[in-house]
Design a protein that fits this description.
With 142 residues, the chain is α/β, with parallel strands linked by helices. It has two helices and five strands. Helix 1 links the parallel strand 1 and strand 2.
């Protein structure tokens, strides 16, 4: 008898080719790498020959104070990474409506370990971007 747990397979998106449209070239690069690493979809450099156009409407990182000490010093931050997207065909018809993904993580903060906190924040944001892109790909595959 088994517990029913199965490893999640690769996220696949239902397009043979896709063009990624975003205002931030780093976001395009992150998404392109993730698609190429985990699907058979070809990412094109031009929307003309692509089967679909992935529009990244918004991708942003925010940092919100979550808790403070009795003396008013920040104890924890909440990091938030959100991405909004939609997919159209090359004629502009909407194939996937606007979707929003938000990933949150708590970052403990200490004045005495400021540099370590910065490094931890960078690592968390990188992981959050990866998770948001994978969630977006999962949503596109459904």
């Amino acid at each position: 008898m088994s517990c029913g747990f199965h490893l999640r397979g690769l996220s696949s998106i239902p397009f043979e080719s896709v063009y990624i449209q975003a205002s931030d070239p780093l976001v395009v690069l992150d998404i392109k790498r993730r698609i190429q690493a985990s699907s058979k979809t070809i990412v094109l450099d031009s929307p003309n020959d692509s089967q679909a156009i992935l529009h990244i409407l918004n991708a942003r990182k925010r940092k919100v104070i979550l808790s403070v000490s009795g003396s008013g010093r920040v104890r924890e931050f909440q990091l938030r990474y959100s991405i909004s997207f939609k997919v159209t065909d090359k004629n502009g018809r909407e194939v996937v409506p606007i979707g929003n993904i938000e990933v949150k993580r708590v970052l403990p903060f200490s004045d005495s370990a400021f540099l370590a906190s910065q490094k931890e924040e960078e690592m968390l944001v990188k992981e959050m971007k990866k998770n948001a892109i994978l969630k977006m790909m999962d949503r596109l595959g459904k």
